[in-house]
Amino acid sequence: MSRIGKMPIPLPTGVTANIDGSHIVVKGPRGELARTFHPDMIVGEEAGILHVTRPTEQKMHKQLHGLSRALLANMVTGVSAGFQRVLNIEGVGYRAEVQGNDLVLNVGFSHPVRFEPPTGIKFSVDKTGRIVTIEGSDKEVLGELAAKIRRVRPPEPYKGKGILYAGERIRRKAGKAGKAKK
């Protein structure tokens, strides 16, 4: 039995789940998320607790069991508490700012790079312009957007300049000056 798949998903107060076969809609204080799961996975609710079960012990069903439960748990967490991802900007002259709803990055290009947020996503930047916080209820969309922003200027190993996730460590290289002499 899947350790993750067999765990129950408690619904916090103010969160409701509407199960219509394999299509599930979860509503909460931070919005509404909908997803269609694999038709073989069985999702049920009893007394404010969601359960995901699988019909057989086939390899595919075992794989889908844990995945379906994790996706459903992320939906519940997203509409109740939400998710956030923090990016740090390192480098002389590198900064970010929010103009309207858009995120504008100045990271060494001849032009600023602008990101328009998808629905349900909000940008915020600290007053130094070095820490970008992305908040939203859909974990999948949030992670993809954070990865796209990081891809604009990934951190380089010589000076450590670029956009990196909070807590991410970059392996530094010595460069030409650190080369051993023969």
List the keywords.
182 residues; alpha+beta; Outer Surface Protein A, domain 3; 2 domains; four-stranded antiparallel beta sheet; three-stranded antiparallel beta sheet; 20% helix; 36% strand
What can you tell me about this protein's structure?
The chain has helices spanning about 60-80, 140-150, and strands at about 10, 15-20, 25-30, 30-35, 40-45, 50-55, 85-90, 95-100, 100-105, 115, 120-125, 130-135, 160-165. It has about 180 residues and is α+β, with helices and mostly antiparallel strands. The chain folds into 2 domains: about 10-80, Outer Surface Protein A, domain 3; about 85-165, Ribosomal protein L6 (Outer Surface Protein A, domain 3), CATH 3.90.930. The strands form 4 sheets. It has a 4-stranded antiparallel beta sheet, covered by helices on one side. Strands 1-6-5 form a 3-stranded antiparallel beta sheet, with helices on one face. A 3-stranded antiparallel beta sheet has the order 2-3-4, with helices on one face.
Sum this structure up briefly:
Helices cover 20% and strands 36% of the residues. With 182 residues, the chain is of the alpha+beta class.
What is the end-to-end distance?
Answer: 60 Å
Rg over CA atoms, rounded to whole Å, is 21 Å
| Overall morphology | elongated
Mean pLDDT: 92
The succession of helices and strands, N to C, reads: EEEEEEHEEEEEEHE
Class of the largest domain, according to the CATH hierarchy? Alpha Beta
**Class by alpha and beta content:** alpha+beta
Number of strand segments: 13
CATH superfamily of the largest domain: Ribosomal protein L6
